[in-house]
Design brief:
By secondary structure, the chain is of the alpha+beta class. The protein has helices at residues 4-16, 20-56, 65-128, 146-193, 202-230, 241-258, 276-292, 323-326, 346-356; strands at 237-240, 262-267, 271-274, 299-305, 308-313, 360-365, 371-376. The chain contains nine helices and seven strands; from the N terminus they run αααααβαββαββααββ. It has a five-stranded mixed β-sheet with strand order 2-4-5-7-6, with helices on one face. Strands 1-3 form a two-stranded antiparallel sheet.
Length: 380
Amino acid sequence: MLSPARLRTAVRGHLARIPFRARLAAAFGGLFLLAGAGLLGLVTVLARRGIVQRLEAIEVMPTADDGIALRKIDLNAAQTVSDTAIQQIQLWSGIGLLLMTGLSALLGWWLAGRALRPVAAVTDAARRIGEQNLHERIRLTGPDDELHRLADTFDTMLDRLEKSFDSQRRFVANASHELRTPLAVQRALLEVGLADPLPPGLADVRDDLLTSNRDAERLLSALLLLARSDRGLEETEPVDLAALARQVVGELRPSAEREGIQLTLSAHPLNLDGDPVLLRHLLTNLVRNAIQYNEPDGRLEVRISGRTLTVTNTGRPLTEDELPALFAPFQRLGQERTATEGHGLGLSIVRSIATAHGATVTAQPGAAGGLIVRVGFRPE
């Protein structure tokens, strides 16, 4: 048997799951029922008291003995008739009260729906608006009340968010563009100034400098790609994702073979309307990431079935708690991988490109280690 405290907690939990609109309609009906019941009780008490006082005020006329007895009989009959009338009033008033309570609950449901319509508009907008459509607004019409001011506040917040995102994207794009030129000049100077033959010891220094320079260029290229995909798609064209997958796998197969990784591809035709350059980068980042975070002599499978792209690799076991960090920029889990290149932007770019194409990216740990990444494209 539940204690009173647990019973109250359970009741509150059940009530919390009832939609607010239903609770508001029930409140309307309950208040009407209480007010009607109170009014009916007050009318019944006052009517009964008024009838009793009226009967007591009737004077008995001085007549013969039988006349007085007859007068008393008339008074008793009147009392019985009044009691019956009050009972009928209570019965039919109670039935009418129940019917009006149901009607008031329905009216309360309708009024609550109209009153909460702006809140529903704000909720739908909050669910719909993301990084790719921050330009959308609620623009609620109607009287200048609390709900209208709530919608205007939400629109103002979206204005600030849009400006912040645009500023961040412009900064990344501009900074990447500005830094690419000096890095290219730096690399050219290194190649020319430190050309063979070199004194002993300088060859290793040149190689280290060139490697560092190439890493910086790759990082800037990745940032530019991330900024471009975050802006969304400007133009689209028909793309066969399976054909792109065959090209990407063919280009990266030598890298996988150098690490002893068995790379397989199973691709059914998948036609999309999208940006072929961005989709190619999506595939490249997925496959390259699966090669880098793999184990020697491991496996890598790329499969396109239906409207889903799946990339599965082997590697160290992962937990569900580690998965969100995989899609965060500049995040890398551990060092157990077959290659040391990269800056932790691969899956961030994958998610950004997928979002630009209206696709969803999910990841889950493999049963025997590694990772399974799925990109689901919406039906056309």
